[in-house]
Specification:
Blueprint lengths: L2 H7 L4 E6 L3 H12 L1 H8 L3 E7 L13 E3 L13 E4 L5 H12 L3 E4 L2 H18 L3 E2 L10 H8 L5 E7 L2 H13 L3 H10 L8 H4 L2 H15 L9 E2 L7 H9 L2 E11 L4 E11 L11 E8 L3 E8 L3 H19 L28 E11 L4 H11 L4 E6 L6 E8 L2 E2 H12 L4 E10 L6
Parallel strand pairs: 1-2, 1-4, 2-3, 4-5, 5-6, 8-10, 10-17
Antiparallel strand pairs: 7-9, 7-11, 9-10, 11-12, 13-15, 13-16, 13-17, 14-15
Helix pairs in contact: 2-12, 4-5, 5-10, 7-8, 13-14
The chain binds L-homoserine (HSE).
């Protein structure tokens, strides 16, 4: 069948084009086929893939009736296409495709958190002007329908704070390091092989992917602009097996968290490895699973849990978005709602710098086994106004003793200053490890 004949035959359906045929694109293609009858029953009409854009061939896949394009941007020009699915990732071609699709009156579904976090304002503005939808459920927390929960389900609430494990690769690595007592690099390679990691895995391990997601979540939670560049971002690459084990002995697990808190006149947005009490619900979220806890004023705490990465889990969110768009297509023109859930965005809630917010800290030092060393460290902390919550001293290894200190809440600047003074002590071997502690439910 020629491409034209295939498109002609599809006139009575909603026609979609898929850009990108990697882990997510191919899973979406398969899920649409697998669920076609059920989707038609739910929507009252069918969805057909009429075009796929991919840079290479996929010999084993049955693409009959599907127009194949090497140049993905051409998908935006196919007249019969109603919805373009951008599942390639990256920010250059993906943006070009999305802007072209919007300009041609097509709705867009994307899983691209980097693009939306960094350039979402421009994309959403173009979409609203053109009267089309840009849906992005898969961009946050993989398969968990979290955006729908936050934007629609919690719409009557003031969100006080949310905290989430929102990078599957990072959580997989931390879990495997603890349970298998394995090294960081070895576990990262496994996450890449399983298709969880970003094309550039530094996005996962340096906290960038989680920061992209938190940017979107905070905009929806607080009605503020997308401000990726203002987040405090730290990854897990500096977390050692020793830290994971000491945290465990102190009653904590180390999780990479995205945290967004609303204060009266500002917001706190940060992603970093965090010691959380083993008794908290988030501490038992392991492997590639994601979870987000939301503290909202009317409903109280709610928790969302599910697969945060992987082809089919992400496809679940993408296909749900496609179905949502189909429902909106059938509404009267002009009834497209605000993509981030707020018709009026607030500019009066600035993002706090990391010097401003209070945290408790975990400090790991290596100290010479000399009488008085601990007393000197405690004095420096006390003079800096830093209270001590707990101390753990381990067996001496060689000529140094590992020492772990948990502090009370304090500003980061004070801790950094105290660390630099402690580092000068002849008894202390630099560098000193510093991680944050969050008791979550007590926040
Ligand atoms: N690399 C991401 C993760 C994929 O590991 O969570 C899903 O966004």
């Amino acid at each position: 069948m020629s491409n034209e004949a295939a498109l002609d035959q599809n006139k009575e359906s909603i026609n979609i084009a898929i850009a990108g045929f990697g882990t997510v694109g191919s899973a979406v293609f398969n899920l649409l086929q697998d669920m076609s009858e059920e989707i038609e029953r739910r929507l009252g009409e069918s969805i057909r893939v009429v075009a796929v854009g991919a840079r290479r061939s996929y010999p084993g896949v049955d693409f009959s009736g599907v127009q194949l394009e090497r140049d993905v941007t051409k998908l935006a020009l196919i007249p019969e296409v109603d919805i373009v699915l951008e599942l390639m990732g990256g920010t250059d071609t993906a943006k070009e495709l999305i802007i072209a699709a919007i300009a041609n009156g097509k709705h867009v579904v994307t899983a691209n958190k980097a693009l939306l976090a960094e350039m979402g304002e421009e994309i959403f503005a173009a979409a609203r002007q053109a009267g089309v939808v840009v849906a992005f459920e898969a961009a946050v927390a993989g398969g968990i329908p979290f955006i729908k929960a936050l934007r629609e389900g919690l719409a009557a609430n003031r969100i006080d704070w949310l905290a989430g494990i929102i990078n599957g690769t990072g959580n997989f690595i931390l879990t495997e390091m603890l349970t298998g007592q394995r090294a960081f690099d070895e576990v990262l390679s496994e996450a890449q092989a399983l298709g969880y990691a970003e094309a550039d895995p530094t996005f996962d391990v340096e906290g960038i992917d989680a920061a992209h997601k938190l940017t979107l979540m905070a905009a929806i939670a607080f009605g503020i602009p997308l401000q990726y560049e203002k987040l405090t971002i730290e990854g897990i690459s500096e977390v050692s097996l020793a830290d994971i084990d000491y945290a465990e002995q102190l009653g904590f697990k180390i999780k990479h968290l995205g945290i967004a808190k609303r204060h009266e006149n500002s917001v706190e947005l940060r992603v970093h490895p965090t010691l959380i009490p083993k008794s908290s619900l988030l501490a038992s979220v392991d492997g590639v699973m994601n979870a987000v806890m939301v503290q909202a004023h009317a409903v109280g705490p709610t928790l969302y849990y599910g697969a945060g990465a992987g082809g089919m889990a992400t496809a679940s969110a993408v296909v749900a978005d496609v179905m949502d768009v189909v429902r909106q297509i059938n509404l009267p023109k002009g009834s497209i709602s605000a993509p981030l859930g707020y018709e009026r965005v607030s500019a009066s809630l600035p993002v706090m710098s990391k010097e401003e917010f209070l945290c408790a800290y975990y400090l790991r030092l290596s100290v010479a086994d000399n009488t008085g060393a601990l007393a000197k460290i405690a004095t420096i902390l006390s003079e800096a106004g830093i209270g001590i919550e707990a101390i753990l001293q381990k067996e001496t290894a060689g000529d140094h003793t590992p020492l772990v200190i948990l502090t009370h809440l304090i500003e980061e600047a004070s801790v950094k200053k105290a660390i630099s003074v402690i580092s000068q002590l002849p008894d202390v071997k630099a560098p000193i490890q510093m991680l944050r502690v969050d008791y979550l439910d007590k926040a």
